[in-house]
Amino acid sequence: MEGKLKINRIKAVLADKDIKQKDLAEMIGKTPSAVTRMCNNNFQPTLKVLRDIAIALDVSMCDLLIDPRKEKK
Which residues of the chain have a pLDDT value below 70? Predict the structure, then answer.
């Protein structure tokens, strides 16, 4: 059985920026549990929420979906 497909990189970007999930939740007006579900890929954010996260974390929406380090081959 293969591992769960990772759709977004929100958790990785938070770690890179040393920002806690609860802080992101406050920044985007969502509950901490909603952010946890998104970070664990149990729930995918809408494009609007993904945009809000990108703005809050000062990254592109693409950075939340694609690991730029893996794309540089």
Answer: 1-5, 68, 71-73
